[in-house]
Amino acid sequence: MRISDQMLANKYLTNMNSTKSKMGKLQQQIATQQKINNPSDSPSGTASLIRLGSQFESTQTYINSITRSLAFLNETQFAMDTMQNEINNVMVKLVDFANPTAQQNNALFADQIDKSLSIIMDLANYQSDGKYIFGGTDTTKAPFLVSDDGNSVSFESNSSGEQKIKTSTNITQKINISGRELFGTIVSESGAMDKTAALGSVVNSSTKIYDATGNEYTLNMQYLKLDNNKYQFSYDIVDGDSNSIYGAPPSSSELIFDDATGNLKTINGESPAIFDIKFPENKINFSIDMRSLKENAAPSSITTSVNQKNDIFNTLIIIREKIKAGEVPDEDLTNQVKTFFNHLLNKTSEVGAMINQLGNTEEMLNNQMTNMQNLAASINEVDLAKAILELQQQDYLLQFSNKVASMILPRSILDYM
Amino acid sequence: MGVSRVFDIARRSLSVYQKALDATSHNVANASNKDYTRQQVVFGAEKSEMNGGFMWGTGVRLTEMLRVRDNLTDVQIRTTNQKYYSSNKQSQLIGQIEQVFAEPSDLGMSNLITRFFNSWQELSVTPNSITLRQNVIQTAQQLSSKNQSINQYLDQMRSDVKAEFGDNVKMLNSYLKEIQGLNSQIFEQSTKGVAANELLDRRDLLIDKVSTMTNINVAYDSVNSATISIGGVYAVDRFTAIEFTAFEEDGRISLKPLGGQVSAMLSGGEMSALADTFSNKIPKYMGTLDSVMSALVESVNGIHSKGYSITAPQKTGVNFFEGYSDGELKINQDILNDPRFIAISADGNSGNGDIASQLAALSTNKIVDGSTLLEVYANLISEIGNEKSTADYLSESNKIVLDKLEEQKSSYSGVSIDEEMTNIIKFQRSYDASAKLVKIADEMLQTIINMV
Question: What is the number of other CB atoms lying within 10 angstroms of the CB of residue A297?
Answer without folding.
Answer: 9
